[in-house]
Amino acid sequence: RNRGMRTRLGCLSHKSDSYNDFTAILPDKPNRALKRLSTEEATRWADSFDVLLSHKYGLAAFRAFLKTEFSEENLEFWLACEDFKKTRSAAKLASKAQRIFEEFIDVQAPREVNIDFQTRELTRRNVQEPSLSCFDQAQGKVHSLMEKDSYPRFLRSKIYTDLLSQTQRRLS
């Protein structure tokens, strides 16, 4: 727990005017990733939030941005729900649902997402008899929140604009 705070403070002290360290965003071979990422692809992330979420590097860049805002739990929850919906084993369904609930939904959860009381209570009831759709409402609320709030800020962020200019620089 302590290490996380130090890392966060370390990130803050290293902020500069230009975002050139793409290793944080594109952990698997950032230079190769940057070569593979076309300006066209990176520009398409601005078309819609779902286009951004469906692109491997778009998702990575958005996650890096959310970390600078200390709100990556929203994306982590959304991704956990996407993974949860792929659960094929009935035996795993209940334990996975419980784990997601305890990590993201419950009051005072370690990575509590910002949802209203009604949605939290509905999700609490759904998790008692879990189905693949038990997080749908909560996931929808978190998706909307990110789309209305974080996504527009991401598109104006240093991370995104510098990434775009990196891809354009390659072309010249």
Automatic annotation (TrEMBL):
GO biological process terms, semicolon-separated: negative regulation of signal transduction
Chief place where the protein resides: membrane
Alphabetical list of SMART domains matching this protein: RGS
UniProt-annotated location(s): Cell membrane; Cell projection, Dendrite; Nucleus; Perikaryon
Domain RGS: start-end pairs: 48-164
Membrane topology: Peripheral membrane protein
CC terms in the record's Gene Ontology section: dendrite; nucleus; perikaryon; plasma membrane
Gene3D superfamilies listed in its UniProt record: 1.10.196.10, Regulator of G-protein Signalling 4, domain 2
CDD domains per UniProt: RGS_RGS8
Record's keyword terms, sorted: Cell membrane, Cell projection, Membrane, Nucleus, Signal transduction inhibitor
Keyword Translocase recorded: no
Name recorded for this polypeptide: Regulator of G-protein signaling 8
Signal peptide stretch: none
Pfam families registered for this protein in UniProt: RGS (PF00615)
